[in-house]
Write a sequence for this structure.
């Protein structure tokens, strides 16, 4: 890991029960102190109550500084096997580089330890020519003269013997004009000895453990054959016929594409470990387009997409392991690290001891949304020549420079990032993190926790992790569940739990905007990893290439929940309508009173407009806003209590709503650009109240908490905590 900030770190797990252990992983260039704090309010914006936290009375020893490596790069790693230790063999694969090699060699298939200068490899030179390495020396023993193009499939093969190496590259399909078909060979003493070196696909070793020469692109059906094929056979043979040679190992990424290993179709079962989660469920060289679900045509999805910046497990050793006290209050916490003048907060979330609750109220902490945005440098990539103009801290600058990606970013090769993990530094997940438009993610949600603390209302936290893993049982014992400002990333089990909770009489206050939006998957075998495939619509930073809409971790179709028949309107009455970026928001104006007065309790004591100088968008409704829509599932008995409209053209209609291009999508001309405050009842006492605004929570603490946003929120919460039926029986 190159030089960077003094302090970097992460925790495992991100959500932990009181009484359980949490591990703190740190990379530090100097000694540092540790303290534990309970987070209350993160931002120091003078319009709000200011940063607030409580120190937990717990002493820690000074920790010795230690720099831990950053093992970026995805690849396959198979076990070494004596059957591979032969004097003559052939290796082959279909490859699609997705960016130029950039002056450094890139491995396709290898059994090479560069630090010991032994073993062999098939890969690309720094100027994109096919090459073979063997034995001592850093230079290839043979290389073609024709560069392999990017974003095109090419069949590559190398025949290794003790006295000869032969290479071929053949375009797939072979093009009649501008072909990059090429071959090369070398003779002499060729040392192919690779005893005890593990086969790697997409990388080779630098020191027996660390991957280097990481490939950027797709590799399809990498294979090792017994025996050396000559140039004529390599160039002419159909690789599907295995060149007429016995197979020693052939890795099939299309088989068990949701797993963490890649099976070997060869005779020795050399199953490969997929390190740092190379993309699975991607079309291979033989993809016909007849199926876009990899489960229905696994033989056409026998490829992986590897990146030199993939990182789903930093693998750092814990510097501190702490068993939390059983009596520690549920809430948001952080390890505060200090080294000289530099400090770093590393948040985590504490739920009550397993099987218990301490309040009738739960706040759903959107940890999957936090992971989706963590380390985001999407805007950084579009700002000045160094791409770092928007970096807010040295840690954030470091993550951008090292391409530690969020689900909004592009890999170095320009492809979108599908996987996010909590087992790596999360440099934007801090209590004081602000985007260009104000408090963002955790710092916005702390505005809600701060208001609850100010009002003296007890609460527990439940995280997305538990809701996904435990289903509705995670909400058992809670009469009311509150969301934060932006619960955007939901899994199918989370939606199921939401529906079951409401059907059982639970009450939900959706206090955000653009929630319940993207189909999200969690790896069953690696629950620290979430996955999305953004599909071909929705407000997105990138979209998947053809044939990649299905999540590799779960097999389900990705994209928006609305296109799976589970739009947010079905769950909370409102759904994403418009995004306003840095545009100024709007107040809510009360809707005409309904005859039956349903939901009137929410507006008690509120006259005129519901407005406040929110820390986002300077309003109650802003940044991203939601509206009711019967066609998308808003229940027919939903009451619209208030509406915010009159937005400027900074607020543009959500792209999934637009069927034809035109210039009339802004708030001044498009009537669908508005936010609705909604309420509806469920059977058995359940109910939903929704604000449809990402700015709502950030307005709770302004003006000393004495504002209409706080008033409405308090009205609803106290009524929802009252077990009296919400549906009034008709008088007799």
């Amino acid at each position: 890991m190159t030089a960077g900030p003094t302090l970097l770190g992460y925790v495992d797990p991100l959500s932990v029960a009181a009484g359980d252990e949490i591990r703190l992983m740190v990379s530090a260039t100097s000694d540092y102190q540790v303290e534990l704090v309970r987070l209350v309010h993160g931002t120091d914006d003078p319009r709000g109550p200011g940063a607030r936290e409580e120190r937990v009375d717990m002493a820690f020893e000074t920790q010795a500084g230690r720099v831990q490596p950053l093992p970026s790069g995805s690849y396959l790693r198979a076990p070494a096997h004596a059957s591979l230790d032969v004097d003559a063999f052939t290796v082959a694969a279909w490859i699609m580089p997705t960016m130029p090699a950039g002056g450094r060699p890139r491995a396709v298939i290898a059994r090479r330890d560069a630090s010991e200068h032994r073993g062999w490899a098939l890969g690309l030179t720094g100027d994109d020519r096919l090459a073979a390495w063997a034995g001592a020396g850093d230079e290839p023993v043979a290389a073609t003269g024709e560069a392999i193009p990017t974003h095109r499939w090419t069949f590559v093969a190398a025949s290794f013997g003790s006295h000869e190496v032969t290479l071929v590259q053949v375009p797939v399909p072979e093009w009649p004009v501008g072909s990059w078909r090429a071959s090369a060979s070398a003779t002499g003493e060729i040392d192919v000895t690779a005893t005890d070196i593990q086969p790697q696909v997409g990388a080779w070793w630098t020191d027996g453990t660390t991957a280097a020469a990481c490939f950027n692109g797709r590799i399809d059906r990498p294979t090792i054959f017994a025996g050396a094929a000559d140039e004529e056979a390599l160039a002419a043979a159909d690789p599907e016929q295995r060149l007429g040679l016995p197979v020693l190992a052939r890795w099939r990424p299309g088989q068990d594409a949701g797993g963490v290993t890649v099976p070997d179709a060869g005779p020795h079962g050399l199953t490969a470990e997929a390190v740092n989660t190379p993309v699975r469920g991607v079309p291979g060289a033989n993809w016909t387009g007849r199926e876009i679900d990899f489960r229905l045509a696994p033989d056409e999805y026998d490829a992986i997409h590897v990146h030199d910046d993939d990182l789903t497990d930093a693998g750092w050793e814990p510097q501190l392991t702490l068993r939390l006290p059983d009596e520690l209050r549920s809430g948001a916490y952080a390890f505060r690290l200090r080294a000289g003048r530099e400090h770093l907060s590393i948040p985590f979330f504490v739920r009550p001891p397993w099987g218990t609750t301490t309040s009738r109220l739960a706040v759903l902490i959107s940890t999957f949304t936090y992971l989706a945005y963590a380390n985001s440098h999407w805007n950084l990539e579009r700002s000045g020549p160094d791409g770092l103009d928007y970096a807010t801290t040295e840690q954030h600058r470091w993550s951008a420079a090292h391409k530690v990606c969020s689900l909004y970013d592009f890999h170095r090769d320009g492809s979108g990032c599908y996987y996010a993990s909590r087992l790596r530094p999360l440099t934007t997940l801090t209590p004081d993190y602000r985007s260009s438009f104000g408090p963002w993610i955790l710092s916005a949600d702390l505005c809600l926790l701060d208001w609850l603390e100010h009002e003296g209302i007890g609460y527990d936290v439940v995280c997305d992790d538990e809701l996904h893993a435990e289903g509705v049982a995670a909400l058992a014992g809670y009469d009311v569940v509150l969301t934060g400002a932006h619960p955007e990333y939901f899994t199918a089990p989370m939606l199921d739990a939401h529906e079951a909770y409401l059907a059982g009489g639970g009450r939900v206050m959706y206090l955000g905007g653009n929630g319940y939006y993207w189909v999200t998957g969690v790896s069953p075998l690696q629950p620290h990893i979430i996955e999305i495939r953004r599909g071909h619509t929705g407000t997105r930073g990138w979209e998947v290439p053809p044939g990649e809409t299905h999540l590799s971790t779960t097999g389900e179709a990705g994209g928006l929940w609305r296109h799976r028949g589970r739009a947010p309107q079905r769950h909370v009455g409102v759904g994403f309508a418009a995004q306003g970026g840095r545009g100024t928001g709007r107040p809510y104006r009360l809707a005409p009173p309904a005859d039956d007065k349903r939901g009137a309790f929410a507006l008690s004591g509120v006259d005129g407009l519901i407005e406040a100088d929110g820390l986002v968008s300077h309003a109650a409704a802003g940044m991203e806003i939601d509206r009711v829509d019967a066609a998308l599932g808003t229940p027919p008995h939903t009451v619209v209590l208030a509406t915010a409209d009159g937005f400027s053209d900074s607020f543009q209609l959500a792209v999934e709503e637009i069927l034809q291009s035109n210039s009339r999508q802004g708030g001044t001309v498009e009537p669908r650009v508005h936010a609705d405050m909604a309420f509806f009842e469920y059977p058995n006492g359940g109910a939903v109240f929704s604000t449809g605004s990402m700015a709502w929570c950030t307005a709770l603490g302004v003006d000393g908490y004495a504002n209409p946003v706080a008033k409405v929120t308090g009205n609803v919460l106290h009524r929802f905590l009252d077990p009296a039926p919400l549906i009034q029986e008709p008088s007799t």
